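Step 1: inspect the first sequence and its tokens.
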Amino acid sequence: MKTQPAFVPWITAWSGEEGPYIAPYLIEGMPLITQRSQPGKGDPLWKRKNLARSRLAALEMICGVCGQPTGLDRWQFHMGHWIGGNYSFAEAPVHEACALKALKLCPVLKTRAELPSRVPADMVFDAKLALGTPAEVKAKFGLERSGLVTDAPFVCGAVVTLPAAEVRRLCSQPRIKLDRP
């Protein structure tokens, strides 16, 4: 019998989770790309996020590592990109202890130069639905609408954004302390 890894972040996708698929309902008038949330079913897919859990984490400020609300213990990895005058984070916020654990165990994070910053208590993130064109959805997920001829976007996930001034403020905050050899 195969044993499960001791550490798998909450937003990691698993091979036994159904999807991605087009949900049978609309979000803000647009079709939703989602997948069933069944952490622990199958094997972890380390380079993929579960679409439903990662969307929930971004919209509700839930720790991407443990799956619990971050409250005032909120740290943010600097993994994202600029869109217009806003910075969109690719990762959900995390607790300090969860960030430390992830930095020690995650191969991608072990090699990153930038450590996460503490999020000031008064900083407000703008969580938005991430949209994808029909062509992007087909290329990324292999999904197409059947019976619909429209260029309306799909809801593919959620992103957390900050305006440039707030990104500068976030970057000036204390970084997590990590004992590296």
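Step 2: inspect the second sequence and its tokens, then contrast the two.
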Amino acid sequence: MLAAAAAAGLFTTLVVAPTAHGKVIYPGTELPGTKTCPNGTISWHNDAQEGRVIRTQIQESSGKERCEFATPQGQVSNGQTIYIGWKSKLTAVPSSNDWNNMFQLKCHGTHVANYPLVWSVNGGKLTLWNFEDINGQTKGRQVWQTNLPQNQWFSILLRVVYSEDRAKGSVQLWFNGTQQTFGNGSKTHFGQTWDGANNNMHWGIYRTARINGTQIHDIKKPTVATTFAEANPK
């Protein structure tokens, strides 16, 4: 019976499309180098809650102080949509209102908007900024803000559409797993997110010389990927 049915062409072949998977651009699973950490240390740290994490720690010095690690250049491109996710814990952040940053989207090559997206940790606030090339000068806009969590873990996931065009570049934010609504009532902020020839990401601590004292930023699994699922902090 089955042979006769097959011969008669009564059976069809079921073709199942392969499941699409995102690409992890930067996995954040290895201890990064210290090329962009002239004023501190980068090391593994065993956290009681999250296990092994990357610890960046500022050591007091003259001038502005920087201890960051960076993704390689050339991994992302203008016009691309990416997701950036990680968990942070900040310890001993001074209450100063002077600039003090824990993350930046960084431009390289000839550019005006040196750092289109920045997370600042000053004045007791955690703030997302968008810096753009406005008539040849860098101008910043506040995108989102909340009270700065200290000595506790929080998660950030960004969906970034790269563009030099202020009307085409955009960012969306999930904070502690919940998508955020910005001050304009929208879940999407439009603005310039790319400048120069190459862009990458920096995590750690970068602060003005006017801030003194020890400061620690612990980071769990900083990840850059092409899908939400691959970058989602866990």
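Step 3: confirm your contrast with the notes below.
The chain has one domain: 23-231. The longest strand covers residues 81-91.
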